[in-house]
Amino acid sequence: MKIQVEVKELKEGKYVIVDDEACVIKSISKSKPGKHGSAKARIDVIGLFDNQKRSIVGPVSDKIYVPVVERKNAQVLSIAGDVAQLMDMGDFSTFEMSIPDEYKDRIVEGEEVSYLTAMGKMKFDLR
Hints:
Belongs to the eIF-5A family. The chain is mainly β.
């Protein structure tokens, strides 16, 4: 799911869709309107799921899509290799997610973990 907003309404730390990928806004710089054009904005972002740096430049009056990012909780039912089977605590559905290397020691069977979901993709959100 995604909604459409104007570029001038975006803030650092919020989410935006760039190249069909949900991204976190790291910095926004806006220029003043010139003699022959409108104000422009440069937005530097990092992919939420692929950690790639991207940037876009455009008028502040343009519309851009913002993903609906949800933070949910799940219980770890079992771990097989680097795949964890999880049960969502809201609707009790079960699903599997691969465990990144940096989280292998922090994800334990029976514990509750939080995860992010946006645009059909999921990732662990351990802080």
